[in-house]
Design brief:
Elements lengths: L9 E5 L8 H4 L11 H8 L13 E7 L24 E5 L2 E10 L2 E10 L4 E8 L7 E5 L14 E3 L11 E3 L3 E3 L2 E8 L5 E10 L10 H17 L9 E10 L4 E5 L5 E9 L6 H9 E7 L2 E7 H4 L9 E2 L3 E3 L4 E4 L3 E3 L3 E7 L5 E11 L8 E14 L3 E9 L2 E12 L10 E5 L7 E2 L3 H4 L10 E2 L3 E6 L6 E8 L5 E3 L2 E8 L5 E13 L4 E2 L5 H4 L12 H5 L8 E3 L4 E5 L5 E5 L12 E5 L7 E7 L6 E9 L5 E6 L2 E8 L6 E2 L3 E6 L5 E10 L11 E9 L9
Parallel strand pairs: 17-24
Antiparallel strand pairs: 1-13, 2-12, 3-4, 4-11, 5-9, 5-10, 5-12, 6-7, 6-11, 8-9, 13-23, 14-22, 15-20, 15-21, 15-23, 16-17, 16-22, 18-19, 19-20, 24-34, 25-33, 25-35, 26-31, 26-32, 26-34, 27-28, 27-33, 29-30, 30-31, 36-47, 37-40, 38-39, 39-47, 40-46, 41-44, 41-45, 41-47, 42-43, 42-46
Helix pairs in contact: 2-3
């Protein structure tokens, strides 16, 4: 294919698309499997066509999770309760074992996503019981879906960033686990720790034929498991079809309209190339370049292009089964977009400057039937979201019939603090209580113990995080291969806004779904918001720490400026500005925030001694509702002082006297370790904050001149 540069349209043909996977096993949705099985579900997982048709057999999708059971109703206390760990349906005894029930669902059905994580020892057993059996057909010898000898491998069994086989962290498990009559999942605790989980599962219509999971069925499907694991990170990118190509410069305020060939047909691949430029002006250009689509007389897509492709603000690496973004400016969408009679794509430049682009759309015939649906995407933007107060922020509310298939959340956070304690709440078909309620924003997006560095998987990822404590721009995205949510009448998706400290956020959610004609969304086009300047953090990455006018305590050495010489694997230890809590109460207006998640988590910091004389060491620390109990060691010497970091508000703690200690090799090394949590502690429970250290000359002994 040749892309012309004179502004004319060239239509090319591609005779064939060479795909490393068998079309029969991986992309054909024409042959309906007579029985739902591991094999058929894996084929469905990598079929781009299947998601564009109403499911057959029909199913509902729900989620079992460890959400805080204090969450009962919007008009009741506890609607934003946040102790989302160690919550189970019930406890029961099975053959002398005490087991906590995580999921209990009638069939026919299938587990399609299992997310879990923990902040402690993983000792214990996960067990899966099918169809009323008293013995589990599947078990894992730890609170870890990568444990045992199943050997599925990524991305179907994917560790979270920072995962430790013998420590904290978790994983996502996407291997489909079908059952004909019933499924029960239990946890047999062998230690202690925070146990978080989410289990997404389908329930098929009565009469659907489902082959229950067995080890033999998995063995038979092993070749497909291997092919799917290979295919998901490297999606086929050359579908058959006619390629409509356009290259031009779109002037400020200009539009380009591309009429697609008559239907029934489908866009199989959409590629947009823009100049790769990290500058703020280029980020604004991408946010202000809007993709619109009309299918069969209905407006189906209105979205800034960088959000549509899952990147959020600017060009950020995305490597997803349905979308890809490369830093050279290439953005690709592989969601199939069928239409019955006619369709058109429009690019609108809302920016004040022109933008060069090239657009390629691959279109091929589509067999339109009573199950075919249009693809939709909308963009909901809102600024000045102050938190607190706690609230449910609406991604989208839909009225009609369709299947929800994913979303991208792009946000701006001006404060160096975690913003995402809030849970998703998804209401389907007018239900009073959400059938999907989660355990945290990062958990919904497939990782845990945030913040974490940028990362991508075929199903979900975090393409952008500007700063380790999420100050600046952040993007998270999730697509649903098997865990799409069908709705007959309506769907409402809300996300709680709960941050560690007060902040004022900008949220922009792009939501994706397939639907029959007549679907109505509550999100209108927002051209004014798309044309807004891109928010920036003024000054340095941590301006409140670097430039705060707050004085230091006399003689204090700031902990946030000390060298961290050792810490628990995966532990976050970063400076935190204390302006939201009255910065003048902390030396330098900042502290070192350590996001510990389990007993035994530690950090070691060191600073130089002024000489070789002993000094009395006074440690200044912080108390808060989610802070833990600590013990201290200085230069290898255990300190008798113990510290309980709990308080009902964020506040400086009374000074901690570490004693009179002689330096070693010209320095002091302080080790701070979590040893427990106050019974009243909430949420994370094991965090701690270190403000500064003051070294004083010890008082002269009695009788000394």
């Amino acid at each position: 294919m040749k892309i012309v540069t004179d502004g004319t349209l060239r239509v090319a043909s591609m005779a064939s698309g060479v795909v490393a996977l068998s079309l029969c096993s991986l992309s054909s949705a024409l042959a309906k499997p007579p029985v739902v099985s591991i094999q058929s579900l894996l084929e469905e997982m990598v079929s781009y066509d299947s998601v564009a048709r109403w499911p057959d057999p029909a199913y509902t999708c729900k989620q079992a999770s460890s959400y805080d059971r204090g969450t009962v109703a919007p008009d009741k206390p506890g609607w934003f309760a946040n102790s989302d760990q160690n919550q189970f349906i019930r406890t029961e005894t099975n053959q002398g074992r005490t087991e906590k029930v995580m999921m209990d669902a009638d069939g026919p059905g299938c587990i399609v996503r299992f997310w879990l994580t923990t902040g402690g020892n993983k000792k214990g057993s996960l067990r899966f019981y099918f169809d009323g059996a008293t013995e589990p057909a599947l078990a894992f010898p730890a609170y870890d879906l990568l444990s045992g000898d199943l050997k599925i491998g990524p991305p179907l069994a994917q560790p979270h960033p920072g995962y430790q086989p013998n420590g904290n962290g978790g994983n996502n498990f996407y291997l489909p686990i079908p059952y004909a009559k019933h499924c029960k999942v239990t946890w047999d605790e062998g230690s202690d720790g925070a146990r978080y989980y989410q289990i997404n599962y389908r329930t098929y219509a009565e009469g659907a034929r489902v082959e229950t999971y067995t080890g033999a069925a998995l063995d038979a499907a092993r070749p497909t498991v291997e092919r799917v694991n290979s295919a998901l990170p490297a999606p086929p990118d050359k579908p058959q079809g006619r390629i409509l190509a356009k290259e031009m410069e779109l002037t400020a305020g200009g539009k380009y309209l591309l009429k697609l060939p008559p239907g029934p047909a489908a866009v199989r691949r959409l590629e947009l190339r823009v100049p790769a430029d990290p500058l703020a002006s280029a980020q604004l250009a991408l946010r202000s370049l809007v993709l619109q689509m009309t299918c069969d007389g209905e407006n189906t897509v209105w979205c800034p292009v960088s959000d549509f492709f899952g990147s959020g603000v600017g060009l950020n690496k995305v490597a997803n089964w349905y979308r890809s973004v490369d830093l050279d400016g290439t953005m690709v969408c592989r969601w199939v977009m069928p239409y019955k009679k006619n369709a058109q794509l429009t690019l609108v430049n809302l920016a004040a400057q022109s933008l060069k682009f090239s657009l390629n759309a691959t279109v091929s015939p589509w067999s339109w039937d009573e199950r075919s649906m249009h693809f939709h995407a909308v963009w909901h933007h809102e600024a000045d979201l102050k938190t607190p107060p706690l609230r449910d922020w609406n991604f989208v509310t839909l009225t009609g019939r369709g299947v929800y298939v994913g979303d991208t959340l792009a946000l701006f956070n001006p404060v160096a603090t975690w913003y995402g304690e809030g849970d998703e709440k998804i209401f389907v078909d007018g239900e009073a209580f959400p059938s999907h309620i989660g355990t945290g924003t990062e958990d919904y997006y497939g990782y845990s113990y945030a913040p974490k560095p940028a990362h991508n998987t075929p199903f979900c990822g975090e393409p952008r995080i500007d700063q380790q404590m999420t100050q600046g721009h952040n993007t998270s995205t999730r697509t649903r291969n098997l865990d799409g949510i069908p709705f007959q009448h309506s769907l409402q998706f809300d996300m709680e806004l709960i941050s560690w400290v007060p902040t004022t956020l900008i949220y922009a959610a792009t939501t994706y779904w397939y639907a029959f004609p007549g679907i109505v969304s509550n999100v209108p086009p927002q051209p004014d918001a798309a044309a807004l300047p891109i928010a920036v953090v003024p000054g340095a990455v941590l301006p409140a720490v670097v430039a705060a006018p707050v004085p230091r305590k006399p003689g204090a050495i700031e902990c946030e400026g000390m060298t961290v010489v050792a810490k628990s694997a995966g532990l976050s230890a970063t400076p935190q500005a204390m302006q939201p809590f009255g910065a003048e109460r902390w030396s330098g207006g900042a502290q070192l925030l350590v996001a510990a998640s389990a007993i035994g988590d530690f950090v070691e910091i060191e600073w130089p001694a002024p000489d070789d004389k002993p000094r009395k060491l006074l440690l200044y620390a912080t108390r808060a509702v989610d802070y833990g109990e600590l013990r201290f060691t200085v230069n290898g010497k255990a300190i008798s002082a113990k510290f309980d970091g709990y308080a009902d508000s964020v506040q400086p703690a009374p000074v901690i006297d570490l004693g009179v200690i002689k330096p070693g090799e010209g320095k002091y090394k302080l080790r701070v370790e979590v040893v427990g949590a106050n019974p009243a502690a909430q949420n994370a429970k094991y965090y701690f904050g270190l403000d500064g250290v003051v070294m004083e000359k010890p008082a002269a002994a009695s009788g000394t001149p």
